[in-house]
Amino acid sequence: MSPRLGTTGLVYVALLAILAAGAALAAARGQELFTTANTVDLLTRSSLLGFVAIGQTLVILCRSLDLSVGYVMALCSVVGATAMAGQTSRIWLGVAAVIVVAGLIGLANGLIVTRLGVNAFITTLGMGLIIKGYLDTRFKGPAGEVPAEFQLFGYTRVGVVPLSFAVMAAVAVLAVVFLRRTRTGVHMYAVGGDAEVARMSGVRADRPLLAAHVLCSVTAGLAGLLIASRFGTGSTLVYSSGYELESIAAVVLGGTYLLGGRGGVGGTVAGVLILATLDTVFNVLGVDPFFKDVLRGTIVIAAVALYARRQVDRAATPPRFAAPSRIPLLRGGRP
Amino acid sequence: MNGGPKAPLLRMSGVGKSFLGVPVLHGVDLQVRAGEVHALVGENGAGKSTLMKILAGVHRADAGTVELDGERVDFAHPVGAREAGVATVFQEFNLLPERTVAENVFLGREPRGRGLRAGVDARAMAAETGRLLEDLGLTAISPHAPVRSLSVAEQQIVEVVKAMSQSARIVSMDEPTAALAGAEVELLYRLVRRLRERGVAVLYVSHRLKEIFDLSDRITVLKDGAKVATADTADTTGADLIRMMVGRPVSAVFPEKIAGTEAGGVRLEVSGGGNERLDGIDLQVRSGEIVGLAGLQGSGRTEIAHALFGIDRFTRGELRIDGERAVLRSPRRAVRSGVALVSEDRKTQGLALHRSVLDNGRLVLDAVAPRRSRARSGRLPGIFSSLELVARSPSQEVRFLSGGNQQKVVLAKWLATDPSVVVLDEPTRGIDVGAKHAVYTLVRRLAADGAAIVLISSELPEVLGLADRVLVLRDGRIAGELPGGVSEEAVMEMAVGGAP
Ligand SMILES: Nc1ncnc2c1ncn2[C@@H]1O[C@H](COP(=O)(O)OP(=O)(O)OP(=O)(O)O)[C@@H](O)[C@H]1O
Ligand SMILES: [Mg+2]
């Protein structure tokens, strides 16, 4: 519609630019960026963060936040692996258990936020701590076992595309359709844009928020399953990998407004790919880990500053001489 | 009118409402018939919006009953009201700026398609909105445009369209013309009359008496949360209405210039001012002088106010305050140079809604002269009472005040700074008749104290009644100057540019 590139388009352009720049830098050093190993690694990394970030996008669109996703991932990897107990026949049981557990956690988060009016930051931080406490006292190491068939989820690939990445992409497509085609999805934008306006317009504002929290936990649960499938067992320690903040970074890098109401899953996927590409490029170039984080931080801040600028430009009313007010013309043409 | 005494479509009886123990409405009765435009009038804080919000399911009454077509209703959520056929245009801005016109119009009741188009059908939504807009003669507004790209007036019209699109039995509108002027008000009249023809019951709140008399069939007056009377518009005069609203006669004429007010030296001077939206602006205001700016919506009035206040500065030309060249790069600079702007949009530019009345009054003082702020804020209570501010206490949060009382806080905040140049952009928007008079007197007082005043208002009589001179704007340029007190027609003619 707009002749100008939308924010999502811009994120994809940035992704391509970073891919090109990375490949050029690597080539200048006589190395190759897109080796099969590197590409597979990049996509696998993206699929894990992708699941989490898709859910996080929904929550952020509603002007909420989920800081418990890392802990939910850890818990769900254990729940899945223990429920499967190494038996092929129990794979679906494990998957179902993960979805139920994650869904209930999300429901609890959502109910606390909507019914008790506790700020989402606090709610999900607290929920994360509760899960952490449970994991730390109950599990002193890896738990459960995943059958070999389920490990295929983590290791199968078609060409350079890992199965897990394809599944993540499919979930992303579902999320895009959900946001466009269901009332709950559409209302997420409304609630995040202005909850009071949504309510006064006859939207039951609690529902989209609840749904977003449930879906966010469930996608974190899927990420937990992927971890279990890759490690062959439930791993409690993933919670220390900082997925909650990383996913938020991916979401805002993808052009979703942290204060809600604007953005989408398409941008988030690009954001995830950008972060993963940066990691791969840094690894190939052998960048010092400290400097790596400095660069990542700078890029995220710069990107958000850029989106904010564009937003300011767009918010300005069109120049007076270019677009006269249209209403006076309604009454039968120009005076 | 559809002859014969019919049972009212809406019957509210004995409606009462308190907020945190403070009663706001007591035993209000209101009956609105189908095919009638029923005006609801009263001072700021009388309870008009609260009554509408009860009907709209936003608030719940503590006492009394609401009946629609003889059936008792009690809405717990705005969804209930909408489903029962009640549509509302609220006093506050109630659209999502990031979403398109179509998405806003259908918010909360998005149509669902079938088959391949299962789920929310964006195409049907846009098509239906387009049809609606076309049907109402509003082809200039695209259903695909994001609401933030529309002018304030267009946004207001979209809100009305949103209410009209619900095929409601009752449409209530809370000061729908507050952001409209001239032709746009006419447009709104057309829309309201259309609803009446369709047999819809229209409940209409406005502080502009002219509209009440132009549009309404009956009038209900509220005062201090109680009903004073319901009368046929045809049997009522403006003076009656004001007496019922205010409880005392209010002078219908504008206050005279205060004795001893003299036009002194030039305090504000703009020569050849221009920017993206303005061109060749020459403007001189002397101390003690009130200069009015008139023009259609979008002609550049507000843009001048913004340029004088450092929001979108002049990129061409020169600006002098008290003879000194000033480059107003930011509002802060402007305030420091002695400029005050009472702005058009109180929700986004004028107030910290979550802070108290007193804090808001001190906002500018604190920002520019924190050390002297305490001493100077001693005058605030006096200013508040001269504006007839209705608030429970100075520590009440501003968001709980009625719309008109919020506007008074904006005024007070600027008056407290002793400005040398005062730009008033729609200073009486949403203010009741009694308080309007108080504002006019205050403006006169400011002039007598030597301020240079620029007055912008879409209510022409206000500009003509107060200003010493009127500059008429057209398309971002000054079309001409007229003396104060000329006829409205003369101004309008200049504003639209006469025959092509
Ligand atoms: N949510 C609320 N909490 C506390 N007090 C409120 C709330 N809403 C309104 N009030 C108070 O109720 C009274 C009536 O307000 P209301 O908005 O109905 O007035 P109004 O007649 O619409 O005035 P105006 O013409 O200024 O819009 C005011 O004194 C206001 O301060
Ligand atoms: Mg009101």
Helix and strand layout, with pairings?
The complex is a heterodimer of chains A (335) and B (500).
Chain A: H1 7-28, H2 36-61, H3 69-84, H4 91-115, H5 120-138, H6 148-155, E1 157-158, E2 161-162, H7 163-181, H8 183-193, H9 195-200, H10 206-231, H11 243-253, H12 265-285, H13 289-315
Antiparallel strand pairs in A: 1-2
Chain B: E1 10-19, E2 22-32, E3 37-42, H1 48-55, E4 63-68, E5 71-73, H2 78-83, E6 86-89, H3 101-105, E7 112-113, E8 119-120, H4 122-135, H5 152-164, E9 170-174, H6 183-197, E10 201-205, H7 209-215, E11 218-223, E12 226-232, H8 238-246, E13 266-274, E14 281-286, E15 290-294, H9 301-308, E16 316-321, E17 324-325, H10 331-336, E18 339-342, H11 346-350, H12 357-368, H13 370-377, H14 380-386, H15 403-415, E19 421-425, H16 433-448, E20 452-456, H17 460-466, E21 469-474, E22 477-483, H18 488-496
Parallel strand pairs in B: 3-10, 3-11, 6-9, 9-10, 15-20, 15-21, 18-19, 19-20
Antiparallel strand pairs in B: 1-2, 1-4, 4-5, 7-8, 11-12, 13-14, 13-16, 16-17, 21-22
The structure holds adenosine-5'-triphosphate and magnesium ion.
Classified by CATH, the class of the largest domain in chain B is Alpha Beta
Low-confidence stretches of chain B: none
CATH architecture of the largest domain in chain B: 3-Layer(aba) Sandwich
Helix content of chain A: over 70%
Oligomeric organization of the protein chains: heterodimer
Alpha plus pi helix count of chain A: 13
Compute the gyration radius of chain B: what is it?
Answer: 23 Å
Radius of gyration of chain A: 22 Å
Describe the model.
The complex is a heterodimer of chains A (335) and B (500). Chain A has helices spanning 7-28, 36-61, 69-84, 91-115, 120-138, 148-155, 163-181, 183-193, 195-200, 206-231, 243-253, 265-285, 289-315; strands at residues 157-158, 161-162. With 335 residues, chain A is mainly alpha-helical. Chain A has a single domain (7-313), classed as ABC transporter involved in vitamin B12 uptake, BtuC (Orthogonal Bundle). Chain A has a two-stranded antiparallel ribbon with strand order 1-2. In chain A, strand 1 and strand 2 form a beta hairpin. In chain A, helix 2 packs antiparallel against helix 12 and helix 4 packs antiparallel against helix 5. Chain B has two domains: 8-250, 3-Layer(aba) Sandwich (Rossmann fold), CATH 3.40.50.300; 266-496, P-loop containing nucleotide triphosphate hydrolases (Rossmann fold), CATH 3.40.50. Helix content of chain B is 34%, strand content 24%. A six-stranded mixed beta sheet of chain B has the order 6-9-10-3-11-12, sandwiched between helices. In chain B, helix 12 (357-368) crosses helix 13 (370-377). The longest helix of chain B has 16 residues, at 433-448. Chain B is globular, with a radius of gyration of 23 Å. Classes of the chains: A mainly alpha (335), B alpha/beta (500). At the A-B interface, helix 7, helix 8 and helix 9 of A face helix 2, strand 8, helix 5 and helix 6 of B. Magnesium ion binds at residues 48-49, 91, 174, 402-403 of chain B.
